[in-house]
Amino acid sequence: MSGKDGDALLQIDRDPEVMRHINGGRITTKREMRDVFLPRLAAYRCEKQGWGLWSSVRKDTAEVIGWTLVRPLHFFTADRDDRNLELGWRYKRSAWGQGYATEAALAICRALKQQTDVRAFSAITEEDNHASIKVMKKLGMQFVKKGLYRDPLGNHEVLYYSILLGNSGSE
Questions:
Q1: pLDDT value at 20 more than 80
Q2: What is this structure's pTM?
């Protein structure tokens, strides 16, 4: 990932409203981007599997307006599941409510379920993040549970949503 990519990510993370459901609204510093976020991204990035961040770019302006994360669920724990891919998204406030997160996540799901042996897509969010829950439901995800999401950066009580693929009958 280039410095330009890090700058685009940092621009999104510097809006307290964007960060509200991620860390309570604390903006990301340049040092955190360099020393924490980009190394974490490098740890799970696997282009062959489609893991990493997928940028969302406006066609008319070439502006990066957001991104969609793809990585194995529970990647940073002993419960890592390479066949259940976690999706997450983060968009500039100016792009909210326009369907970009849903459109990007649907395209990624279609591509990855054809190219990999993924059996499920999952997503997590805080209970009061109604916009993300709406995206999850548009993706066809169903509520699974409320529980603790474990991560070396901190554990969080979240809602889990998921969609099973293949012969599960839940597609």
A1: yes
A2: 0.89
